[in-house]
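Run DUF3276 family protein through structure prediction, thanks.
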Amino acid sequence: MEDAGKKMNVETGDKEILYSRAIKAGKRIYYLDVKRNLKDDLFLAITESKKVQSKEGAQATFEKHKIFLYKEDFEKFIEGLSDVIGYIQQHNGDVSTKPANSNDPEENDTSDSGDIKLTIDF
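Sure, done. The structure for DUF3276 family protein is below.
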């Protein structure tokens, strides 16, 4: 996956979004949006947007799927995500989940620790 989005504070448009990041991955774009609920708690809204071309080829539409992840579930979600990514890497070859052209020294660490590092900042 290619990290296409920049970390940004969204002040215009959808006022519910406090922080957003977009990740381009082929024909899909994943949006990670931090929002606030009515109880003033922050949560994560993950949206997958996929470009779908009509059979006639005239006009493309976007198919969207959303999930909402609440703070009490973050640890279990990260643990589960790390587990399944590790399984895929072990059974499908060691496919890197990091962009090859990253300038972040942490992301360019090529040590073979076998650990999966996920960083989600709120």
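The chain has one helix and four strands.
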